[in-house]
């Protein structure tokens, strides 16, 4: 019955972006992971399309609030397939600079998803990096690619 109601709700939605957001919430897109600094709390995180598609750009949008004053320089992340390291990502932060306690920010970036990505279970772990090269938060997203 639950799946029938969800299916009917999806059929009644006219905007594909709304359908994608509903699907993201159903798939529990990501979660906070342990980080000793925890200077930034993620309030929303989305990946479009989800799950990613081979050879297509992947848009990540992360919003959150700073828990301490920070100078931000970039975003770092790693991808794993079946627990084995697959790639490392180091990006300069589009809004780098100084942020204060309580300040909110929304970060959007587009990265390519490899066209030759193997099938399997993927986990991506990443976070925002401060001027001391420390990751100030941690977020993880998992999905299967057929």
Key attributes of the depicted protein:
single chain; 146 residues; alpha+beta; Immunoglobulin-like; 5-stranded antiparallel sheet; 3-stranded antiparallel sheet; 2 helices; 15% helix; elongated; disordered N terminus
Oligomer: single chain
Number of strands: 8
Q: Provide the succession of SSEs.
A: HHEEEEEEEE
Average pLDDT for all residues: 79
CATH class: Mainly Beta
Distance between the termini: 27 Å
Number of domains: 1
Organism: Stentor coeruleus
Keywords: Signal
Signal peptide: 1-16
Protein name: Reelin domain-containing protein
Topology of helices and strands:
Blueprint lengths: L1 H11 L3 H11 L4 E2 L7 E9 L8 E10 L3 E12 L2 E16 L4 E9 L7 E11 L8 E7 L1
Antiparallel strand pairs: 1-8, 2-3, 3-6, 4-5, 4-7, 7-8
What does this structure look like?
This protein is an alpha+beta fold. The protein has one domain (29-145): Sandwich (Immunoglobulin-like), CATH 2.60.40. 15% of the residues lie in helices and 52% in strands. The longest helix is centred in the N-terminal third of the chain and has 11 residues, at 2-12. The chain starts with a helix and ends with a strand. The relative contact order is 0.23.
Brief overview:
The chain is an alpha+beta fold. It contains 2 helices and 8 strands. Keywords: Signal.
């Amino acid at each position: 019955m639950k799946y029938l109601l969800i299916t009917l709700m999806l059929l009644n939605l006219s905007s594909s972006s709304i359908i994608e957001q509903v699907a993201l919430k159903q798939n529990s897109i990501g979660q906070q992971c342990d980080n000793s600094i925890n200077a930034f709390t993620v309030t929303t995180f989305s990946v479009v399309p989800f799950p990613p598609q081979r050879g297509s750009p992947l848009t990540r949008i992360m919003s959150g609030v700073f828990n301490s004053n920070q100078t931000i320089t970039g975003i770092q992340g790693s991808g794993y397939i079946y627990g084995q390291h697959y790639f490392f990502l180091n990006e300069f932060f589009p809004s780098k600079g100084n942020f204060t306690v309580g300040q909110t920010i929304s970060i959007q970036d587009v990265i390519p998803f490899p066209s030759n990505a193997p099938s399997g279970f993927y986990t991506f772990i990443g976070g925002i990096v401060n001027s001391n090269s420390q990751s100030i938060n941690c977020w993880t997203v998992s999905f299967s690619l057929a």
